[in-house]
Amino acid sequence: MNIAQMCAAQAESFPHKSAIVHRDVSIDFESLHELVDRCAAGFSALGLERGAKVALLLEKTPPLVVSFIACARQGLMVVPLNYRLRPAALAGIIEQYEIDALVVAGKFLDLLSEVPRQHGAFARLVVCEPCEQEEAGALGWDKFLDEAPDEAPAVEVDDDEPFYLNFTSGSTGIPKAAVTTHTNLFFNTLASVETFGLRHNDVHLCMFPAYLHPHEIFYRGLYLGGTSVLENSLFPKSVARAISKHGVTCMMGAATLYERLLPFASNSQFDHKTLRIAESGGMVTRETLNKQFEAAFGIPITPVWGSTETTGIAVAPHAGEVRRGGSVGKAALHYTIRVAREDGSEAGEMELGEMLVSGNGVASRYYRPKGQVPDESFGALAGGWFRTGDLVKRDENGCIYFVDRKDAMMKVAGMKVFPTTIERVLKEHPEVDDVCVIPVEDKKRGQVPKAIVVRKPGTSVDPLDLKAFCASRLASYEVPKSFDFREDIPRSPSGKLLRSAVLEMYKAASIRADIADLRAQIDRIDVELVKLLNERARSILRIREQVEARGERTFSPLREEEVLRNVLGHNSGPAHDGTIEEIFRSILVAFKKM
Predict the structure, then answer these.
(1) Is 502 contained in some domain?
(2) Could you tell me what percent of the chain has a pLDDT over 90?
(3) Cα–Cα distance between 341 and 320 in angstroms, integer?
(4) Which helix (H) or strand (E) holds 296?
């Protein structure tokens, strides 16, 4: 069953139950199904046939939900676009992924400025919400629905055919997209429902952006006949108000959001008693925050692990089971986890290894865009197992303990050091708001950890304090050798630390520092070289004077003598390479002709 069939079924079962809520507008299942049918008919009227790609450049609004489900009904492919990208990057995706139609929020039209107007997608451009800019040939959302035929042609959609392209969080070049099928989508949702024990009367609030696993915003509610709240603001007061106003029971968000919600737990203006599940993905949640949140809201933060390739959550604590500190839970139902050694064999209990994931929710391949040559990362989905690149340990109960990314591990004097281990410790410091640990080169130990720290507002913790804090909790080789302080650290919208961006930033700074050092070294060499060359010039002149004193003939032309004296008079400090070469050449010529 695909999501469009599910929408139709819920319209039959719960026609007047609220399906989605946006601001003060509530759309019941019957109305949602009717909107989906009209949108599907509209897509067909635009000439879109099975397999065509529809890009959605939208926030969490009803057109996002309606367009997504309508694409499933007609066998179209959904391509969620990241509205935080620059126009040139979006233009590259639209061209290389061969987009056939665009559904765009009016506020994002300017982001399409780099897309050639002759591109075929502009012939099928639907603009949602009022906008100042009138795009030639564009259809407004309401007009698009109003002018759609009464019925969309029936399309037999195979559950295993590609449905949407789920982009990875790659930060360079054209991003990679996992090909997600209707089956992948269904089983990921089923896994979440069964693993967490979700219910028909649950009210869901997903605080991740519309382009990041968009099905998680509304599919769980659709599956159960529950309600999904669409909220775009990340201001904690707005989120607290949404929880209180709509009686949210199940929430998804980054750890940083839960921390910012803490002050509102005791605010009598907001009622959070309905909240029973608070999922946190994308980053490690520090233990102090877990304790603070449970004390304030009466429920624990539920850590989860998921990825683009697994269509979302694949590891999580199971409902009713005892939670183990430091663990992100077990394999979600309908997923299988392996922990593999370097040689591919199964790792033992609590032995470090790479996590591999399989199941009906795992994508089978990446999409190959036009003109792109697949690199080795495309092999991560080969053989029915997704090689996550995450290093984990698994205990006797099957609980998974995340250690670090495989490519983040550093070697300090031959010892394995994991940045995440250090980051967890530093995050427990009461004056540390955020932290990223990266490797820097060291002549003695190969690599050493460096910590980039964001202080909490109004605090003044210094490197000595932090070094002492780490020294009492970490092995000596794990203690960061240096600390830098910044206003913020780059993270993805899901809260995932963008370590590669931090590394690139510091690598560029290191290169600039190296260049400055080399230039200073060249200047010092120039000074010494000029001194030596001047001394040589003086020696040549003294030889000439002594030869002339004995009445012997010299072979130094007057011009060379003039050059030598000029050298002595004007070259007593740093010189450019050209000047140094001229000095040397002049002296050499003079010496040879004497």
Answers:
(1) no
(2) 59
(3) 31
(4) helix 287-297
